[in-house]
Amino acid sequence: MNIKNIFFTSLTALFLFSSAFAQENNEALLKQISKGFSNVAKSATPAVVYIESQGVEKTQEISTRKTPSENPFDYFNDDFFNRFFGFPFEKKQPKSSETVRGSGFLISKDGFIVTNNHVVENANKVNVTLQNGDKVVATVIGSDPKTDLAVIKIEGNDYPFLPFGDSDQLEVGDWAIAIGNPFGLQTSLTVGVVSAKGRSQLHIADFEDFIQTDAAINPGNSGGPLLNVEGEVIGVNTAIVSGSGGYMGIGFAIPSNMVKQIVGQLINDGEVTRGFLGVTLQPIDADLATFYKLKKPQGALVTDVVKGSPADLGGLKQEDIIIGYNGFTVENLSGFRNHVSLMQPGSKLKLRVVRDGKEIELSMNIIQQPSDKAAPAHTNIPSQKLGIQVQELTPELSQKLGFVDVQGVVITQVTPGSPAAASAIKPGSLIMAVNRQKISNLAEFSTAIHEAAKEGKVVLMIRQGDAIRIVALRF
Fold this sequence. Notes:
475 residues, alpha+beta, Thrombin, subunit H
Protein backbone atom coordinates (compact mmCIF):
# COMPACT_ATOMS: atom_id res chain seq x y z
CA MET A 1 0.00 0.00 0.00
CA ASN A 2 1.48 3.33 -1.02
CA ILE A 3 1.70 6.46 1.12
CA LYS A 4 -1.32 8.06 -0.59
CA ASN A 5 -3.60 5.13 0.14
CA ILE A 6 -2.40 4.95 3.73
CA PHE A 7 -3.16 8.66 4.17
CA PHE A 8 -6.73 8.43 2.84
CA THR A 9 -7.41 5.24 4.79
CA SER A 10 -6.27 6.92 8.00
CA LEU A 11 -8.31 10.06 7.22
CA THR A 12 -11.45 7.98 6.59
CA ALA A 13 -11.00 6.11 9.86
CA LEU A 14 -10.49 9.38 11.74
CA PHE A 15 -13.67 10.85 10.15
CA LEU A 16 -15.75 7.80 11.08
CA PHE A 17 -14.39 7.85 14.63
CA SER A 18 -15.06 11.58 14.95
CA SER A 19 -18.62 11.18 13.60
CA ALA A 20 -19.36 8.39 16.04
CA PHE A 21 -17.89 10.43 18.88
CA ALA A 22 -19.85 13.55 17.85
CA GLN A 23 -23.07 11.54 17.55
CA GLU A 24 -22.52 10.10 21.01
CA ASN A 25 -21.90 13.59 22.41
CA ASN A 26 -24.97 15.00 20.65
CA GLU A 27 -27.16 12.26 22.06
CA ALA A 28 -25.76 12.94 25.52
CA LEU A 29 -26.45 16.66 25.12
CA LEU A 30 -30.03 16.05 23.94
CA LYS A 31 -30.64 13.73 26.87
CA GLN A 32 -29.25 16.36 29.24
CA ILE A 33 -31.55 19.07 27.79
CA SER A 34 -34.53 16.72 27.93
CA LYS A 35 -33.71 15.85 31.53
CA GLY A 36 -33.52 19.55 32.38
CA PHE A 37 -37.05 20.18 31.09
CA SER A 38 -38.44 17.13 32.87
CA ASN A 39 -36.79 18.24 36.13
CA VAL A 40 -38.49 21.65 35.83
CA ALA A 41 -41.80 19.89 35.16
CA LYS A 42 -41.44 17.69 38.23
CA SER A 43 -40.52 20.56 40.55
CA ALA A 44 -42.85 23.23 39.20
CA THR A 45 -46.04 21.40 38.20
CA PRO A 46 -47.23 20.69 41.78
CA ALA A 47 -47.38 24.45 42.44
CA VAL A 48 -49.54 25.27 39.39
CA VAL A 49 -53.30 25.36 39.97
CA TYR A 50 -56.48 25.38 37.87
CA ILE A 51 -58.92 28.21 38.62
CA GLU A 52 -62.65 28.50 37.96
CA SER A 53 -64.32 31.80 38.81
CA GLN A 54 -68.10 31.56 39.04
CA GLY A 55 -70.80 34.21 38.84
CA VAL A 56 -68.70 36.66 36.86
CA GLU A 57 -70.84 39.46 35.45
CA LYS A 58 -69.80 40.22 31.89
CA THR A 59 -70.87 43.77 31.09
CA GLN A 60 -68.02 44.85 28.83
CA GLU A 61 -67.76 44.31 25.10
CA ILE A 62 -66.04 41.05 24.26
CA SER A 63 -64.98 39.69 20.91
CA THR A 64 -67.03 37.00 19.22
CA ARG A 65 -67.27 35.61 15.72
CA LYS A 66 -69.77 37.43 13.55
CA THR A 67 -70.84 34.32 11.66
CA PRO A 68 -74.07 32.31 11.62
CA SER A 69 -72.27 29.28 13.04
CA GLU A 70 -71.55 28.92 16.72
CA ASN A 71 -68.02 29.70 17.87
CA PRO A 72 -66.72 26.23 18.86
CA PHE A 73 -64.56 27.77 21.60
CA ASP A 74 -67.51 29.42 23.39
CA TYR A 75 -67.77 26.21 25.39
CA PHE A 76 -64.62 27.10 27.27
CA ASN A 77 -65.98 30.52 28.29
CA ASP A 78 -62.44 31.79 28.79
CA ASP A 79 -62.13 35.55 29.22
CA PHE A 80 -58.48 35.36 28.17
CA PHE A 81 -59.62 33.84 24.87
CA ASN A 82 -62.39 36.36 24.26
CA ARG A 83 -60.26 39.42 24.96
CA PHE A 84 -57.16 38.73 22.91
CA PHE A 85 -57.93 36.70 19.81
CA GLY A 86 -58.76 39.51 17.46
CA PHE A 87 -62.32 38.57 16.52
CA PRO A 88 -64.55 41.48 15.41
CA PHE A 89 -66.14 43.22 18.38
CA GLU A 90 -69.82 42.64 18.97
CA LYS A 91 -72.01 43.56 21.94
CA LYS A 92 -72.81 40.54 24.05
CA GLN A 93 -75.70 40.55 26.50
CA PRO A 94 -74.61 40.54 30.16
CA LYS A 95 -74.86 37.17 31.86
CA SER A 96 -75.85 36.89 35.49
CA SER A 97 -73.67 33.84 35.99
CA GLU A 98 -70.64 32.96 33.91
CA THR A 99 -67.61 30.82 34.62
CA VAL A 100 -64.12 32.04 33.70
CA ARG A 101 -61.33 29.48 33.62
CA GLY A 102 -57.62 30.08 33.95
CA SER A 103 -54.42 29.18 35.74
CA GLY A 104 -52.40 30.36 38.71
CA PHE A 105 -49.43 29.34 40.81
CA LEU A 106 -48.59 29.17 44.51
CA ILE A 107 -45.93 31.60 45.73
CA SER A 108 -45.85 30.62 49.42
CA LYS A 109 -46.37 27.52 51.51
CA ASP A 110 -49.32 29.14 53.30
CA GLY A 111 -51.48 29.31 50.18
CA PHE A 112 -50.98 32.65 48.38
CA ILE A 113 -51.62 32.29 44.63
CA VAL A 114 -50.84 34.66 41.75
CA THR A 115 -53.10 34.81 38.71
CA ASN A 116 -54.51 37.35 36.26
CA ASN A 117 -57.07 39.92 37.34
CA HIS A 118 -59.37 39.03 34.46
CA VAL A 119 -59.52 35.43 35.68
CA VAL A 120 -61.07 36.37 39.05
CA GLU A 121 -62.46 39.87 38.47
CA ASN A 122 -65.98 40.38 39.95
CA ALA A 123 -66.32 36.67 40.72
CA ASN A 124 -68.84 35.52 43.34
CA LYS A 125 -66.85 32.36 44.01
CA VAL A 126 -63.32 31.24 43.09
CA ASN A 127 -62.60 27.51 43.03
CA VAL A 128 -59.04 26.19 42.90
CA THR A 129 -58.06 22.67 41.83
CA LEU A 130 -54.64 21.56 43.02
CA GLN A 131 -52.37 19.28 41.03
CA ASN A 132 -53.29 16.32 43.26
CA GLY A 133 -56.97 16.80 42.42
CA ASP A 134 -58.06 18.49 45.65
CA LYS A 135 -60.62 21.27 45.14
CA VAL A 136 -60.73 24.22 47.52
CA VAL A 137 -62.39 27.64 47.66
CA ALA A 138 -60.10 30.67 47.42
CA THR A 139 -60.43 34.21 48.76
CA VAL A 140 -59.46 37.17 46.58
CA ILE A 141 -56.85 39.14 48.54
CA GLY A 142 -56.43 41.96 46.04
CA SER A 143 -56.32 42.73 42.34
CA ASP A 144 -54.78 45.30 40.03
CA PRO A 145 -56.57 45.79 36.71
CA LYS A 146 -53.88 48.19 35.48
CA THR A 147 -51.36 45.32 35.27
CA ASP A 148 -53.93 42.51 35.06
CA LEU A 149 -52.60 40.83 38.21
CA ALA A 150 -54.43 39.38 41.22
CA VAL A 151 -53.61 37.50 44.41
CA ILE A 152 -55.93 34.86 45.87
CA LYS A 153 -55.45 32.63 48.92
CA ILE A 154 -56.42 29.13 49.96
CA GLU A 155 -56.41 27.84 53.52
CA GLY A 156 -53.75 25.40 54.62
CA ASN A 157 -50.00 25.08 54.92
CA ASP A 158 -46.98 23.28 53.51
CA TYR A 159 -48.02 23.82 49.91
CA PRO A 160 -45.39 23.51 47.17
CA PHE A 161 -44.60 26.94 45.72
CA LEU A 162 -42.52 28.60 43.02
CA PRO A 163 -39.72 31.14 43.58
CA PHE A 164 -39.42 34.30 41.50
CA GLY A 165 -36.47 34.82 39.17
CA ASP A 166 -34.96 38.10 37.96
CA SER A 167 -36.67 39.08 34.70
CA ASP A 168 -34.13 41.87 34.15
CA GLN A 169 -31.50 39.21 33.53
CA LEU A 170 -33.44 37.64 30.67
CA GLU A 171 -31.91 37.64 27.21
CA VAL A 172 -33.67 37.17 23.91
CA GLY A 173 -33.14 33.51 22.99
CA ASP A 174 -33.24 32.19 26.58
CA TRP A 175 -35.37 29.09 27.15
CA ALA A 176 -38.92 29.75 28.37
CA ILE A 177 -41.23 27.12 29.87
CA ALA A 178 -44.98 27.68 30.26
CA ILE A 179 -47.21 25.60 32.54
CA GLY A 180 -50.97 25.99 32.74
CA ASN A 181 -54.36 24.54 31.99
CA PRO A 182 -55.15 25.20 28.31
CA PHE A 183 -58.74 24.31 27.39
CA GLY A 184 -59.16 22.81 30.86
CA LEU A 185 -56.35 20.28 30.28
CA GLN A 186 -54.61 20.56 33.62
CA THR A 187 -50.87 21.04 34.15
CA SER A 188 -49.75 21.13 30.53
CA LEU A 189 -46.15 22.14 29.81
CA THR A 190 -44.79 23.80 26.67
CA VAL A 191 -41.29 24.96 25.82
CA GLY A 192 -40.00 27.85 23.70
CA VAL A 193 -37.72 30.83 23.95
CA VAL A 194 -37.89 34.48 24.94
CA SER A 195 -38.46 36.05 21.53
CA ALA A 196 -38.55 39.72 22.63
CA LYS A 197 -38.56 41.95 25.70
CA GLY A 198 -40.20 45.24 26.64
CA ARG A 199 -43.27 44.84 24.43
CA SER A 200 -45.75 47.68 24.99
CA GLN A 201 -48.59 49.63 23.36
CA LEU A 202 -50.52 46.38 22.93
CA HIS A 203 -53.58 47.77 24.78
CA ILE A 204 -53.74 44.68 26.99
CA ALA A 205 -53.16 46.55 30.25
CA ASP A 206 -52.49 50.13 31.34
CA PHE A 207 -48.91 49.34 32.38
CA GLU A 208 -47.15 47.14 29.84
CA ASP A 209 -43.61 45.80 29.66
CA PHE A 210 -44.28 42.31 28.34
CA ILE A 211 -41.97 39.39 27.73
CA GLN A 212 -42.77 37.92 24.32
CA THR A 213 -42.39 34.15 23.99
CA ASP A 214 -43.09 31.44 21.45
CA ALA A 215 -43.77 28.85 24.16
CA ALA A 216 -47.26 27.64 23.24
CA ILE A 217 -49.90 29.52 25.27
CA ASN A 218 -53.59 28.83 24.70
CA PRO A 219 -56.96 29.69 26.29
CA GLY A 220 -56.76 28.62 29.94
CA ASN A 221 -53.02 29.34 30.31
CA SER A 222 -53.91 32.84 31.49
CA GLY A 223 -52.37 33.50 34.92
CA GLY A 224 -49.97 30.57 34.74
CA PRO A 225 -46.18 30.85 35.21
CA LEU A 226 -43.50 31.37 32.59
CA LEU A 227 -40.33 29.72 33.93
CA ASN A 228 -36.63 29.66 33.22
CA VAL A 229 -34.55 26.47 33.14
CA GLU A 230 -33.90 26.82 36.89
CA GLY A 231 -37.63 26.51 37.54
CA GLU A 232 -37.94 30.16 38.62
CA VAL A 233 -40.92 32.31 37.62
CA ILE A 234 -39.80 34.92 35.09
CA GLY A 235 -43.30 36.00 34.06
CA VAL A 236 -47.07 35.55 34.34
CA ASN A 237 -48.70 34.47 31.08
CA THR A 238 -51.37 36.98 30.13
CA ALA A 239 -52.26 37.13 26.43
CA ILE A 240 -51.59 35.79 22.96
CA VAL A 241 -51.90 37.22 19.48
CA SER A 242 -54.00 35.20 17.06
CA GLY A 243 -56.33 35.90 14.20
CA SER A 244 -57.68 32.37 14.05
CA GLY A 245 -58.38 31.47 17.66
CA GLY A 246 -55.40 29.14 17.93
CA TYR A 247 -51.77 29.33 18.96
CA MET A 248 -49.71 31.29 16.41
CA GLY A 249 -46.36 31.61 18.14
CA ILE A 250 -46.71 34.93 19.96
CA GLY A 251 -47.54 35.05 23.67
CA PHE A 252 -47.03 37.74 26.29
CA ALA A 253 -46.10 37.50 29.96
CA ILE A 254 -45.85 40.13 32.70
CA PRO A 255 -42.19 40.22 33.84
CA SER A 256 -41.49 38.80 37.29
CA ASN A 257 -39.85 41.96 38.66
CA MET A 258 -43.04 43.90 38.03
CA VAL A 259 -45.12 41.02 39.43
CA LYS A 260 -43.11 40.91 42.66
CA GLN A 261 -43.71 44.59 43.41
CA ILE A 262 -47.43 44.47 42.62
CA VAL A 263 -48.02 41.20 44.46
CA GLY A 264 -46.16 42.43 47.54
CA GLN A 265 -48.46 45.45 47.80
CA LEU A 266 -51.60 43.38 47.19
CA ILE A 267 -50.68 40.96 49.99
CA ASN A 268 -49.67 43.67 52.46
CA ASP A 269 -52.25 46.35 51.65
CA GLY A 270 -54.88 44.76 49.44
CA GLU A 271 -54.30 47.44 46.80
CA VAL A 272 -51.55 49.06 44.76
CA THR A 273 -50.19 52.55 45.43
CA ARG A 274 -48.57 54.19 42.41
CA GLY A 275 -46.30 57.14 41.92
CA PHE A 276 -47.52 60.18 39.99
CA LEU A 277 -45.44 62.70 38.04
CA GLY A 278 -48.09 64.73 36.21
CA VAL A 279 -47.01 64.93 32.57
CA THR A 280 -48.23 63.91 29.14
CA LEU A 281 -45.50 62.33 27.05
CA GLN A 282 -44.94 61.09 23.54
CA PRO A 283 -42.07 59.12 21.99
CA ILE A 284 -39.28 60.73 20.00
CA ASP A 285 -39.28 59.54 16.39
CA ALA A 286 -36.69 60.26 13.69
CA ASP A 287 -38.42 63.46 12.57
CA LEU A 288 -38.63 64.87 16.09
CA ALA A 289 -35.02 63.87 16.80
CA THR A 290 -33.94 65.90 13.76
CA PHE A 291 -36.15 68.85 14.72
CA TYR A 292 -34.82 68.98 18.29
CA LYS A 293 -31.23 68.28 17.17
CA LEU A 294 -30.90 65.02 19.09
CA LYS A 295 -28.21 62.48 18.30
CA LYS A 296 -30.75 59.66 17.94
CA PRO A 297 -34.52 59.14 18.25
CA GLN A 298 -34.60 58.34 21.94
CA GLY A 299 -36.31 59.89 24.95
CA ALA A 300 -39.73 61.18 25.99
CA LEU A 301 -41.12 64.50 24.77
CA VAL A 302 -43.16 66.45 27.33
CA THR A 303 -46.32 67.68 25.59
CA ASP A 304 -48.19 68.90 28.69
CA VAL A 305 -47.55 69.45 32.41
CA VAL A 306 -50.31 69.30 35.02
CA LYS A 307 -50.36 72.47 37.09
CA GLY A 308 -49.32 71.88 40.71
CA SER A 309 -47.98 68.41 39.94
CA PRO A 310 -44.49 67.17 40.94
CA ALA A 311 -43.37 67.79 37.35
CA ASP A 312 -44.63 71.39 37.48
CA LEU A 313 -43.13 72.06 40.91
CA GLY A 314 -39.86 70.44 39.86
CA GLY A 315 -39.43 72.76 36.90
CA LEU A 316 -40.30 70.40 34.03
CA LYS A 317 -41.63 72.33 31.03
CA GLN A 318 -43.50 71.67 27.84
CA GLU A 319 -41.21 70.50 25.01
CA ASP A 320 -38.57 69.29 27.45
CA ILE A 321 -37.13 65.96 26.37
CA ILE A 322 -36.51 63.47 29.18
CA ILE A 323 -33.48 61.34 28.28
CA GLY A 324 -32.62 59.83 31.68
CA TYR A 325 -34.08 59.06 35.09
CA ASN A 326 -32.49 57.87 38.35
CA GLY A 327 -29.41 56.64 36.51
CA PHE A 328 -31.30 54.93 33.68
CA THR A 329 -31.65 55.93 30.04
CA VAL A 330 -35.13 56.48 28.60
CA GLU A 331 -35.22 53.69 26.04
CA ASN A 332 -39.00 53.89 25.59
CA LEU A 333 -42.03 55.54 27.16
CA SER A 334 -43.33 52.35 28.77
CA GLY A 335 -40.15 51.68 30.69
CA PHE A 336 -40.02 55.23 32.06
CA ARG A 337 -43.74 55.28 32.87
CA ASN A 338 -43.59 51.92 34.63
CA HIS A 339 -40.59 53.02 36.69
CA VAL A 340 -42.43 56.13 37.92
CA SER A 341 -45.63 54.20 38.64
CA LEU A 342 -43.77 51.70 40.83
CA MET A 343 -42.09 54.43 42.89
CA GLN A 344 -43.45 54.99 46.37
CA PRO A 345 -44.95 58.40 47.21
CA GLY A 346 -42.27 60.65 48.65
CA SER A 347 -39.51 59.10 46.53
CA LYS A 348 -37.16 61.44 44.71
CA LEU A 349 -36.98 61.32 40.92
CA LYS A 350 -33.89 62.73 39.23
CA LEU A 351 -34.26 63.54 35.54
CA ARG A 352 -31.80 64.33 32.76
CA VAL A 353 -33.56 66.68 30.37
CA VAL A 354 -32.70 68.32 27.06
CA ARG A 355 -34.10 71.87 26.86
CA ASP A 356 -33.33 74.13 23.91
CA GLY A 357 -30.43 71.89 22.93
CA LYS A 358 -28.82 71.93 26.38
CA GLU A 359 -28.79 69.09 28.90
CA ILE A 360 -29.95 69.95 32.43
CA GLU A 361 -30.80 67.99 35.58
CA LEU A 362 -34.03 68.31 37.55
CA SER A 363 -35.18 66.75 40.81
CA MET A 364 -38.74 66.27 42.04
CA ASN A 365 -40.67 64.37 44.71
CA ILE A 366 -43.16 61.76 43.50
CA ILE A 367 -46.67 61.84 44.99
CA GLN A 368 -49.37 59.18 45.10
CA GLN A 369 -51.31 58.77 41.90
CA PRO A 370 -54.89 59.96 42.35
CA SER A 371 -57.41 57.12 42.31
CA ASP A 372 -59.69 56.63 39.35
CA LYS A 373 -62.67 57.42 41.56
CA ALA A 374 -61.12 60.74 42.55
CA ALA A 375 -60.84 62.01 38.96
CA PRO A 376 -57.06 61.89 38.57
CA ALA A 377 -55.30 65.10 37.66
CA HIS A 378 -53.91 63.76 34.40
CA THR A 379 -57.45 63.29 33.02
CA ASN A 380 -57.99 67.02 33.56
CA ILE A 381 -55.69 67.80 30.65
CA PRO A 382 -58.21 69.28 28.17
CA SER A 383 -56.79 67.66 25.05
CA GLN A 384 -57.07 64.23 26.71
CA LYS A 385 -60.68 64.97 27.60
CA LEU A 386 -61.32 65.61 23.92
CA GLY A 387 -59.56 62.35 23.14
CA ILE A 388 -56.59 63.63 21.16
CA GLN A 389 -52.83 63.69 21.47
CA VAL A 390 -50.76 66.15 19.46
CA GLN A 391 -47.17 66.90 18.52
CA GLU A 392 -45.18 69.65 16.82
CA LEU A 393 -45.42 70.01 13.04
CA THR A 394 -41.82 69.44 11.96
CA PRO A 395 -40.53 70.18 8.44
CA GLU A 396 -40.28 66.44 7.82
CA LEU A 397 -43.89 65.86 8.90
CA SER A 398 -45.01 68.82 6.78
CA GLN A 399 -43.50 67.14 3.75
CA LYS A 400 -44.88 63.69 4.56
CA LEU A 401 -48.42 64.88 5.32
CA GLY A 402 -48.56 67.49 2.56
CA PHE A 403 -48.97 70.49 4.88
CA VAL A 404 -47.19 73.18 2.87
CA ASP A 405 -47.10 76.81 4.03
CA VAL A 406 -49.40 76.10 7.00
CA GLN A 407 -48.91 76.06 10.77
CA GLY A 408 -50.43 74.09 13.60
CA VAL A 409 -50.02 70.90 15.62
CA VAL A 410 -50.43 67.36 14.31
CA ILE A 411 -52.92 64.94 15.86
CA THR A 412 -51.01 61.71 16.57
CA GLN A 413 -53.71 59.71 18.34
CA VAL A 414 -57.50 59.72 18.72
CA THR A 415 -59.09 57.80 21.60
CA PRO A 416 -61.94 55.49 20.51
CA GLY A 417 -65.32 56.65 21.86
CA SER A 418 -64.04 60.17 22.62
CA PRO A 419 -65.64 63.45 21.45
CA ALA A 420 -62.93 63.72 18.80
CA ALA A 421 -63.61 60.21 17.50
CA ALA A 422 -67.36 60.89 17.41
CA SER A 423 -66.64 63.89 15.14
CA ALA A 424 -64.59 61.71 12.75
CA ILE A 425 -61.29 63.42 13.58
CA LYS A 426 -58.41 61.26 12.37
CA PRO A 427 -54.72 60.91 13.32
CA GLY A 428 -52.54 62.83 10.89
CA SER A 429 -54.89 65.82 10.86
CA LEU A 430 -53.58 69.32 11.54
CA ILE A 431 -55.15 71.62 14.15
CA MET A 432 -54.70 75.10 12.69
CA ALA A 433 -56.77 77.18 15.13
CA VAL A 434 -58.51 76.92 18.52
CA ASN A 435 -61.59 79.14 18.95
CA ARG A 436 -60.52 81.16 15.88
CA GLN A 437 -57.07 81.74 17.40
CA LYS A 438 -54.33 80.51 15.07
CA ILE A 439 -51.67 78.28 16.63
CA SER A 440 -48.21 77.32 15.46
CA ASN A 441 -46.74 75.15 18.22
CA LEU A 442 -47.52 73.01 21.29
CA ALA A 443 -47.22 75.91 23.72
CA GLU A 444 -49.81 78.01 21.87
CA PHE A 445 -52.11 75.02 21.50
CA SER A 446 -51.88 74.19 25.22
CA THR A 447 -52.65 77.77 26.28
CA ALA A 448 -55.59 78.04 23.90
CA ILE A 449 -57.07 74.66 24.79
CA HIS A 450 -56.84 75.34 28.54
CA GLU A 451 -58.69 78.62 28.06
CA ALA A 452 -61.36 76.91 25.96
CA ALA A 453 -61.84 74.22 28.61
CA LYS A 454 -63.06 76.86 31.04
CA GLU A 455 -66.11 77.34 28.80
CA GLY A 456 -66.68 73.60 28.46
CA LYS A 457 -66.56 73.64 24.66
CA VAL A 458 -64.16 74.44 21.85
CA VAL A 459 -64.19 75.05 18.10
CA LEU A 460 -61.24 73.64 16.18
CA MET A 461 -60.12 74.42 12.64
CA ILE A 462 -58.75 71.15 11.32
CA ARG A 463 -57.12 70.24 8.05
CA GLN A 464 -57.53 66.62 6.98
CA GLY A 465 -55.77 65.99 3.69
CA ASP A 466 -56.77 68.79 1.34
CA ALA A 467 -59.99 69.60 3.20
CA ILE A 468 -60.44 72.08 6.04
CA ARG A 469 -63.16 71.44 8.64
CA ILE A 470 -64.57 73.46 11.53
CA VAL A 471 -65.44 71.12 14.40
CA ALA A 472 -67.25 72.00 17.64
CA LEU A 473 -66.49 69.72 20.60
CA ARG A 474 -67.54 69.59 24.25
CA PHE A 475 -65.17 68.63 27.05
